[in-house]
Structure formats: C-alpha cells, structure tokens
C-alpha cells in the first residue's frame, strides 16, 4: 500500500492511497487542477484513479470532488447524509457514479480493504477511514473535536496515521477570530489541538516505528514546527522515542508529501 497526503490544512485537503490494483482519493478539497498537479508531482497519472471517498461536506474537503469525478469517470463514495449535503455543491454527478458508504461499514475495492468510522465534527455525518492491504494498515482521522475510545480502538494498530493536529490553544485564544469561531474550534465538534493530538496518540501507538502525519494544521493558529514539537514532547514524556519508536511527518497545504510505501 502506497500513500501521499496531497494537501492538508484549512485551505484544502486530499489524500492518495493505492495498491497495485486500485488507487483512491480521500477528499478533494483543492481544485481539480491542483489535485492533478499534486498527483503528477508524486508520479501518478490521474487517469489511473479508481474512486473518491468523501469524509464530509465542508468545502475544504470537496472543492474538486465533482470536477475530478466528471473528468475521470470516478465513482464517489459517501454516506447518505453527506450525499444530501453534497448535492448542489459539487455539480451534476451521474447516477452510476453515486455510491453509498455508511458509517461503520467495511468494503473491499479490489485488494484494498476500507473501514469507515464516525467522528465528532459539525457536519452532517462525518467519517474517518482505515485502509487495509495484506497485513498493513493506514488510519486517517482528521476534523474531529475529540477522540473517543471507540475511535481509538478502530484506528489503533496502524502502520501509519494521518492525524489531525489543528491548532495551538494559546495561539487560537489570542487570534483575531471572533469568539464564536474560537468556541466552535475548541468544542467537541471542532478540531483537535496539538496537545489533544499528542494525548490521543498515546492511546493508539505501540512504539513499533509507526509513522504519524500531523495533518489539517491551521494557517493562522499553528505552525509546523510547533505542532511537531508539542506532539513530540507529549510522546517522549510517556517514554516513546520520536525517531525510533515513532516517526513524525509534516504535511503541507500547497504540496504533497513523499509517496511512501507501507
């Protein structure tokens, strides 16, 4: 299984996951042109894509979904409540491209196993995904206000995680955001802080050299170095050696991460 975080942050999110038999996008929150450029950067021909999975209907996750689906004839997988919000936002989608993927459901697309799970966010019915191929597992969990025990149990045991580390609490509190937006971000249906990300990861990691991609960083209320340092300190305070037991990776709003294989 190969993957790359094509874009991550408040301006747009997209992830590429592939096996030898199928490749999929998780969200396309960037333009179709940007998605194509990101794929080409990692040596992937967009015409070889097989499907798009949608976590939820916020624009930073669906901006390019309709364009990519129409351009390459891709089926779109989303749950029923998300589809009710997508209609009217992503343009006309042919009936045979509309697929349903319920919360808690497991599917197999060719040799790629996919399991969805519910997350806490202010969307119709937001989801995260775990991907399985052979003995390898990739867990994707972003856009969630808190990490429940059920989510931890579902994503635990992965070889790699794409995990939200959205904001630094003090930077957010001091920001120019209206209090209503600050309250939303800090709520149980908002976004994970760097500290919350580190604390949640402690309950998921085994110290088996897992890779953790810190994702969905706020442009205004976080910094890559700050997110990495905060999570690193929390993990090392509990005895995990960053660089040995676990490897932290950065993600970017404007360029893809290196295509990695599990």
Describe this structure in words.
The chain is an alpha/beta fold and 262 residues long. The chain is globular. The relative contact order is 0.16. The chain has helices at 32-41, 59-62, 65-72, 80-86, 149-155, 169-174, 179-186, 194-202, 224-237; strands at 2-7, 14-18, 23-28, 51-53, 76-78, 98-100, 106-109, 112-118, 127-133, 136-141, 160-164, 210-215, 246-250, 260-261.
Number of domains: 1
User: What is the β-strand count?
Assistant: 14
Oligomeric state of the chains present here? single chain
CATH superfamily placement: Ribonuclease Z/Hydroxyacylglutathione hydrolase-like
Unreliable runs, pLDDT <50, ≥5 residues? none
Indicate the overall shape: globular
Helix content: 25-40%
**Name of the level-1 CATH class:** Alpha Beta
Biggest sheet record: 7 strands, mixed
Number of helical stretches of at least 4 residues: 9
Q: Give the mean pLDDT.
A: 97
CATH architecture classification: 4-Layer Sandwich
SSE arrangement, N to C:
EEEHEHHEHEEEEEHEHHHEHEE
Indicate the proportion of strand residues: 25-35%
Radius of gyration: 17 Å
Strand order of the largest sheet: 6-5-4-3-2-1-14
User: Which fold name corresponds to the CATH topology?
Assistant: Metallo-beta-lactamase, Chain A
Organism: Brevibacillus fortis
Function: Counteracts the endogenous Pycsar antiviral defense system. Phosphodiesterase that enables metal-dependent hydrolysis of host cyclic nucleotide Pycsar defense signals such as cCMP and cUMP.
Catalytic activity: 3',5'-cyclic UMP + H2O = UMP + H(+); 3',5'-cyclic CMP + H2O = CMP + H(+)
InterPro entries: Metallo-B-lactamas, RibonucZ/Hydroxyglut_hydro, WalJ/YycJ-like
């Amino acid at each position: 299984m190969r993957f790359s975080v094509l874009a991550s942050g408040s301006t747009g999110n997209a992830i590429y996951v592939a096996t030898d038999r199928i490749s999929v996008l998780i969200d396309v929150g960037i333009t179709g042109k940007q998605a194509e450029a990101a794929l080409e950067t990692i040596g992937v021909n967009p015409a070889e894509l097989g499907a798009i999975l949608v976590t939820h209907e916020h624009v930073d996750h669906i901006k390019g979904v309709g364009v990519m689906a129409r351009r390459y004839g891709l089926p779109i997988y989303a749950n029923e409540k998300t589809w009710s919000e997508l209609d009217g936002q992503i343009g006309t989608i042919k009936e045979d491209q509309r697929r349903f993927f319920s919360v808690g459901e497991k599917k197999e697309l060719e040799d790629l196993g996919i399991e969805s799970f519910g997350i806490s966010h202010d969307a119709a019915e937001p989801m995260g995904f775990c991907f399985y191929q052979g003995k390898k597992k990739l867990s994707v969990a972003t856009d969630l206000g808190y990490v429940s025990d059920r989510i931890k149990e579902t994503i635990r045991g992965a070889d790699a995680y794409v995990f939200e580390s959205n904001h630094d609490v003090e930077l957010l509190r001091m920001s120019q955001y209206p209090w209503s937006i600050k309250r939303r971000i800090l709520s149980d249906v908002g976004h994970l802080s760097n500290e919350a990300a580190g604390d949640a990861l402690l309950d998921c990691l085994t110290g088996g050299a897992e890779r953790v991609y810190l994702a969905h960083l706020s442009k205004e209320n976080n910094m890559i170095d700050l997110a990495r340092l905060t999570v690193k300190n929390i993990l090392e305070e509990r005895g995990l050696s960053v660089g040995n037991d676990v490897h932290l990776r950065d993600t970017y709003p404007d360029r893809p991460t290196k295509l990695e294989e599990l």
